[in-house]
Structure formats: C-alpha cells, structure tokens
C-alpha cells in the first residue's frame, strides 16, 4: 500500500502493525502536552466524556485508534489516519483537500466528523467517547509529515546504509522512528535491531507512560517559556471550530512541507544508497519535537474550543 510505504520512512517502528502513526510515545506525549494546556472546564468535560478522572485521561486513549484499525471491525477506519497529498516532493509540496481526500475519507474529514460527533447531544455516551478518542489520535497523526504525503517511496526497495551497514529505507526508519516505539515492542531479536530500543532510551529515557509525561513536560516548558514561546501564537493562526476542514488542512499542509524540507529535501535518489545515521537523523530530531509540540498545543486549543468556545491559550 503506497500510503504505508510512505508513512514508514520516518519515526515509525516498522515491524509492528500499529507502526503507521506516531508510536505510543509520540501520541501519549501529544496528549500530555494538551493536558498541560487545556482549561479546567475542558479537562472536566473530557474527563467526563472519557470516564476517567485521572491525569492520564487523554494519554491513555491516545493510541486506541491505531489498535482499532487492525481489528476486523476497524479496517474501514484505516484511511482516516492519513491524507495522501498528490504533490511532487521535493520540488513541490502541498495538500489540497478536494484533490487529496479520497472517497473513503481521510484524516481531515475524520477530524471534521469526530469534532461534530463529540459535540452531539443525540449520540450515545459511548459514541461520543469514541469520537473523543479518534480526535485525540488524529490530531496527533496529522502532524506527522508522512501522514500527509501520497508519494510511493517503497521503503523496502530503497537501499541505504546506516552506520555503514547495508539495509533499506524501511529499516533505517526504525532508527529515526525508534524515538516513538510501540509500548509493547518485541525485544530486539538481533544486534542490528538493538538500537531500536537503545536510541529512544537514550533520548527520552524509555517509553513508558511516565516517559511520555516527562517528554511532554520538557516540550511544555519550551512552549511556555522556551524556544517555541515566540512562535506558539502562530501555531493557532486560522484555527476555527466552525471550519474544521480549513483548520485541519492547514495543519496537514504545515506538516507536509517537511517532506520537502526534511524527509527528502533532495529527492529519493539522494536518500537511496546513502548513510542516514548522521546528518539526516540529526536534522530529523528537531522536526519531530516541533511537530509533537504543535500537535499537543493545537489539540489543547481544539478541545478548549469544543468545551468552552474559546482557546484560552
Ligand atoms: C463519522 O463517524 C462515524 C462513526 O465512526 C462513521 O460511521 C461515519 O461513517 C463517519 N462519517 C463520515 C462522513 O466520515
Ligand atoms: Zn494513526
């Protein structure tokens, strides 16, 4: 599936079926950042919807949608995790809703649908809770650059090296992706895979719920008083609860622009047969952090708009 091939280039633990979004750590970090910024009224409302009064009320549901899509009952929801931009990286990046959102729906139409459903007074409590769980997840996914890209990169066929070892792009991604491994990741089966767990443990300190919480605390500080302070207001430019398609498409376009600038700035051929463990990896890390920070901040604003009518940020 071309979407899956493209999606696997970055951040993703590739050996697991749930590898197609941010991994567990990424989604939970997005959720905790949102938790840190929502108003108390928003917190109360969503704790009630989700039936969880703990501080983890968003984090614990943030990966449910990736589990659900791999059940027989949830197969239909797979296209909702992406929008396949039919652009032409690296020379031209861009997302157009009417061109790129397929008939089965996409992450933009899903954000629209679940924004509407979470506010419904006629749906059952269970359906409203499901809508909230989808929304928390999809606002994370839409910030992952390769969730907003249709280019078929065939990661398994693109030969590259990592630390001098021959492998393919699909595997390489595991290096970058291992910042966001799956919580229940299988133990490394060989030495080549050991960096799948070693890298994240070094960078974040692990991938338990508590690690997501502390990673979120670091990024929250960057947003409040650190390197993102001056730009955070611009992250909410154009945000409009009454026009979810325009709002979500602007988030998708923003993330998609990194396909041209960071994921493959010089095209597929420049990535092919090269070693990605150095400069490529180093350049990817700040974008990963930035996109997770934006996702958490925008999720907080969106939930505030739903619960209270204003962002409060
Ligand atoms: C909205 O979500 C519901 C529940 O998941 C789904 O059955 C329906 O097909 C969705 N509608 C659209 C237009 O996406
Ligand atoms: Zn997903």
TrEMBL record:
Signal peptide extent: 1-21
GO biological process: DNA catabolic process
Alphabetized UniProt keyword annotations: Disulfide bond, Endonuclease, Glycoprotein, Hydrolase, Metal-binding, Nuclease, Signal
Family per similarity comment: Belongs to the nuclease type I family.
Organism, as annotated: Lachnellula subtilissima
Single annotated GO MF: metal ion binding
Gene: nucS_0
One Pfam family in the UniProt entry: S1-P1_nuclease
InterPro entries on file: PLipase_C/P1_nuclease_dom_sf (IPR008947), S1/P1nuclease (IPR003154)
Protein name, as recorded: Nuclease S1
Listed CDD domains: S1-P1_nuclease
């Amino acid at each position: 599936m071309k979407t899956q091939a493209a999606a696997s280039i970055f951040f993703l633990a590739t050996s697991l079926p749930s590898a197609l979004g941010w991994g567990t750590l990424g989604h939970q970090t997005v959720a905790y950042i949102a938790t840190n910024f929502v108003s108390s009224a928003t917190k109360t409302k969503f704790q009630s919807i989700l039936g969880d009064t703990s501080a983890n009320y968003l984090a614990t549901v943030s990966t449910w949608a990736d589990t659900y899509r791999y059940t027989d009952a949830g197969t239909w929801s797979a296209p909702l995790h992406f929008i396949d931009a039919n652009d032409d990286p690296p020379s031209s990046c861009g997302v157009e809703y009417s061109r790129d959102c397929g008939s089965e729906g996409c992450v933009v139409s899903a954000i629209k649908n679940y924004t509407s459903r979470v506010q419904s007074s006629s749906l059952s409590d269970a359906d409203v809770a499901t809508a909230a769980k989808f929304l928390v997840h999809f606002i994370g996914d839409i910030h992952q650059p390769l969730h907003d890209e249709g280019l078929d990169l065939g990661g398994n066929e693109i030969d590259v090296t990592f630390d001098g070892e021959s492998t393919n792009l699909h595997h390489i991604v595991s290096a970058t992706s291992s910042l966001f491994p799956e919580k229940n990741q299988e133990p490394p089966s060989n030495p080549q895979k050991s960096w799948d767990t070693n890298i994240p443990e070094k960078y974040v300190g692990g991938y338990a719920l508590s690690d997501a919480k502390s990673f979120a605390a670091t990024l929250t500080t960057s947003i409040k008083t650190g390197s993102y302070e001056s730009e955070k207001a611009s992250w909410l430019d154009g945000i409009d609860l009454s026009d979810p398609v325009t709002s979500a498409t602007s988030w998708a376009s923003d993330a998609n622009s990194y396909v041209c600038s960071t994921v493959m700035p010089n095209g597929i051929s420049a990535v092919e047969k090269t070693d990605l463990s150095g400069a490529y990896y180093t350049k990817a890390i700040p974008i990963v952090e930035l996109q997770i920070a934006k996702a958490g901040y925008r999720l907080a604003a969106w939930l505030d708009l739903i619960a209270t009518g204003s962002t409060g940020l």
